[in-house]
Every structure is written in structure tokens, then in C-alpha cells.
């Protein structure tokens, strides 16, 4: 049933997107949010989607691994149970609530940091020309990181807890410290699980809508100006922004962008599965 449902979604998206996929630029002349043909319009959105997700993953992965290690190997049992319960609850917070939190609390918090980066490191294009408020792709990536940390942490925590006890005891018996034991036994055993958790988080970040819609000042540029507002947007947020007022070829174009996002997400998961299968024979589980 899962495979049938997945195939039905793909067929629906392809069927509805086909008129936009084969249309030329003249057919989009009456669509106010599309300039040029479909691919010229989608390319910046795809770039913004991937860029925001990479920022989120770069922030979330080290944080999640640290939290998971603390819960599984450092915290007392009662504290570990409490923290695990809190992490699971965080994953259930609606994305619109996280977006409102980011817009009302996080943006004022990071504003001085972004201003300092732009003043002192503005010669680097990544940090140039910051102007408040912080409605840029970096803030969006930070909000996405907060959203995917619970998912990644919960997965990695369970993987670390599956490390064979004999492996840990053998490492400690050879005179290793607790951190050396973690490097020698826990992290190698959990490598595939960490990759799986990262791909789960990346899939969530790629498809996130409301949090990004509430944070970003949208733009259609392909650049790495991380602190400038009005430069980037994501596919999902763009669909949510324009779909209610669209009709005709505009709806087909939005569905076509959804098809592209579907293909990217599917491709990411396929690559993750390939990486995991390649590393399975070297895993500590074997």
C-alpha cells in the first residue's frame, strides 16, 4: 500500500505538472510571479530550498549528536529519561508555532550577531550588507535546525543505545577513557544510524513550509549572501504563498515545482540508502 500510494502521488504530480513542464515563456506571461520559463523560475527556489536545508543540517547534526551522547552515555538514568521525553515532545510542536517563535524571539536575538558579522567580516560576500530585521536565509536555516534537532536526536540516541555492551566494556578494559571508548566503539557502530538520522532531518527541512514562510523575506536570486533579506525562497514556502490565488497554468507551475521537490527528496533518500548499504558490511553491528 505504501508503494501504491507513493506511485499514485508521483503520477498525480506528473499529470498535473505536465502542461507547465512543456509550456514556453509566452504562456507564463500572465502569471505575475513567474518571469521567463518554468526552469528559470524554479532554479532559484530549488537553490534556496537546498541552501536552507544545508544550513539547518550543519547546525543540527553536531548539536543532535552531542545531546544524544549525553543522554545515552553521560546523564544519570532519571535525567536521561526526562531529557528523552522532552526531546520527543519537541518533535510534536507544530511548525507554525516554531515559525512564530523564530519571528518574534529568534530574529531579535540574532540581530546583533549578524550586525557584528557584517561589520567585521563584511569583506567576505557571505556576511556582506546585512540590514535588519533578520529575515534572511540564515535565520530560516536556524529555525529549521531547531525543528529537525528532535528528530535527529531521537534517532541517534536509539542507535547509540544499541551499541553492544561488550564492545564498550572491551574498550574500557584496555584503559580507554569514556570519550575514547565513545570514539572507538559507539561512534563507529552508530555511523550508519547517524547518516539515516541526518537524511530524515534533511527530508523534513526540504519540505518545511510555514516556518520558512513566516521568517523569510522572499526573493528569487541564486547567491550566497546569507545575511541579506529578499534574496532567497524555498519551493514549499513559495507554493503556500501563491497557491490560494492561482489558477490555470499558474497552478500547474506550482505543482511542477512540487514535483521537483518530490524528486529531490526521493533522490536524497535513495542516496542515503546507498550510503548506508555500502557501510553496512563495515558496521559494528556485524
From TrEMBL:
Domain ABC transmembrane type-1: 46-272
One Gene Ontology biological process: phosphate ion transport
Spans through the membrane: 38-71, 83-107, 142-161, 210-229, 249-272
Alphabetized UniProt keyword annotations: Cell membrane, Membrane, Phosphate transport, Transmembrane, Transmembrane helix, Transport
GO CC term (a single one): plasma membrane
Topology in membrane: Multi-pass membrane protein
GO molecular function annotation: phosphate transmembrane transporter activity
Location in or out of the cell: Cell membrane
Domain of life: Bacteria
InterPro entries the UniProt entry points to: MetI-like, MetI-like_sf, Phosphate_PstC, Phosphate_Transport_Permease
The keyword Endoplasmic reticulum belongs to this UniProt entry's keyword annotation: no
Keyword flag DNA-binding: no
Role summary: Part of the binding-protein-dependent transport system for phosphate; probably responsible for the translocation of the substrate across the membrane.
Family: Belongs to the binding-protein-dependent transport system permease family. CysTW subfamily.
The name this protein goes by in its record: Phosphate transport system permease protein
Phylogenetic lineage: Bacteria, Bacillati, Actinomycetota, Actinomycetes, Micrococcales
Amino acid at each position: 500500500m505504501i508503494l501504491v500510494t507513493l506511485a499514485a502521488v508521483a503520477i498525480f504530480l506528473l499529470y498535473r505538472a505536465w502542461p507547465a513542464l512543456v509550456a514556453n515563456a509566452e504562456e507564463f506571461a500572465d502569471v505575475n510571479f513567474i518571469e521567463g520559463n518554468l526552469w528559470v523560475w524554479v532554479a532559484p527556489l530549488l537553490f534556496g530550498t537546498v541552501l536552507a536545508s544545508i544550513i539547518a543540517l550543519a547546525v543540527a547534526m553536531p548539536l543532535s549528536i552531542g545531546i544524544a551522547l549525553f543522554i545515552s552515555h553521560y546523564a544519570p538514568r532519571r535525567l536521561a529519561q526526562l531529557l528523552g521525553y522532552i526531546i520527543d515532545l519537541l518533535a510534536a510542536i507544530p511548525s507554525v508555532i516554531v515559525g512564530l517563535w523564530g519571528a518574534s524571539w529568534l530574529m531579535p536575538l540574532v540581530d546583533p550577531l549578524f550586525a557584528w558579522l557584517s561589520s567585521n567580516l563584511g569583506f567576505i560576500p557571505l556576511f556582506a550588507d546585512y540590514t535588519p530585521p533578520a529575515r534572511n536565509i540564515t535565520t530560516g536555516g536556524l529555525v529549521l535546525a531547531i525543528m529537525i534537532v528532535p528528530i535527529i536526536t531521537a534517532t541517534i540516541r536509539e542507535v547509540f543505545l544499541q551499541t553492544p555492551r561488550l564492545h564498550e566494556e572491551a574498550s574500557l578494559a584496555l584503559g580507554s577513557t569514556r570519550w575514547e571508548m565513545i570514539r572507538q566503539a559507539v561512534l563507529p557502530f552508530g555511523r550508519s544510524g547517524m547518516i539515516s538520522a541526518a537524511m530524515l532531518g534533511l527530508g523534513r527541512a526540504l519540505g518545511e513550509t510555514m516556518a520558512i514562510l513566516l521568517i523569510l523575506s522572499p526573493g528569487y536570486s541564486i547567491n550566497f549572501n546569507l545575511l541579506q533579506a529578499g534574496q532567497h525562497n524555498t519551493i514549499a514556502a513559495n507554493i503556500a504563498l501563491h497557491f490560494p490565488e492561482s489558477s490555470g497554468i499558474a497552478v500547474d507551475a506550482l505543482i511542477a515545482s512540487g514535483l521537483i521537490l518530490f524528486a529531490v527528496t526521493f533522490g536524497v533518500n535513495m542516496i542515503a540508502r546507498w550510503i548506508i548499504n555500502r557501510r553496512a558490511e563495515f558496521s559494528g553491528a556485524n
